[in-house]
Amino acid sequence: MLRYIEGPEVRITENDGIFLDLEFYHTKDKLTALEPHRLFPKSGGNRYVTLLNSEGEEQAIIRDVANLDEDSRRAVEAALDEYYMIPRITRFISMVDTFQIWMWTAETDHGTLTFEVRNHVATVKPLYDGRVLITDASDNRYEIPDYRKMDPRSRKMIETML
């Protein structure tokens, strides 16, 4: 039975990294080891988060994480941050083209990373607010929060790809 969560009727706690436990106050029902996923990962933010059991079956949907109590909200946000970890690029060190396969080295909020970009026209997506989403050849995702605020050298490097 799929349940919709408005906020105050549940308590959500962490259960090993990206998993959560859910307890309904009124019925005392408890669901364990649920994995949160955003139903609208690019546009929805923390609204409409589904909770899946170990078989991948939808158990509940949180309409808006902001409506949860503070401890539950923090648990859900931490699990989502872990699951949707996307390194944010702060500057580019190099972009080298070898037979139309680009090797990029960038500084990110998770350290210096080197990754391969094949068809930059299809895998580098500029958004209206200055953000840039990048998917590498291994299907890993990266984000530039606002390319217009990067240092001049990095900005010049990425602008050739947009």
Mean pLDDT: 93
Note the run of SSEs as H and E: EEEEEEHEEEHEEEH
Measured by DSSP, the beta-strand proportion falls in 35-45%
Considering DSSP H and I runs of 4 or more, what fraction of the residues is helical?
10-25%
Q: Domains counted in the coordinates: how many? A: 2
Number of strands: 12
* Oligomer status: single chain
State the low-pLDDT regions, or none: none
Query: Main sheet, how many strands, which sense, barrel?
Result: 6 strands, mixed
Strands across the major sheet, in which order? 1-6-5-4-3-2
Number of helices: 3
Basic shape: elongated
N- and C-termini, Cα separation: 46 Å
Keywords, please?
162 residues, alpha+beta, OB fold (Dihydrolipoamide Acetyltransferase, E2P), 2 domains, 6-stranded mixed β-sheet, 3-stranded antiparallel β-sheet, 3 helices
Compile the SSE list and pairings.
Layout: E1 3-5, E2 10-14, E3 20-24, E4 30-38, E5 47-52, E6 58-64, H1 70-83, E7 89-98, E8 101-108, E9 111-117, H2 120-123, E10 124-126, E11 132-135, E12 141-144, H3 152-159
Describe the overall structure.
The chain is α+β, with helices and mostly antiparallel strands and 162 residues long. It folds into two domains: 81 residues, no CATH class; 71 residues, OB fold (Dihydrolipoamide Acetyltransferase, E2P). It contains three helices and twelve strands. Strand 3 and strand 4 form a beta hairpin.
Question: What would a concise description of this structure say?
Answer:
The chain has 162 residues and is of the alpha+beta class. Helices cover 16% and strands 44% of the residues.
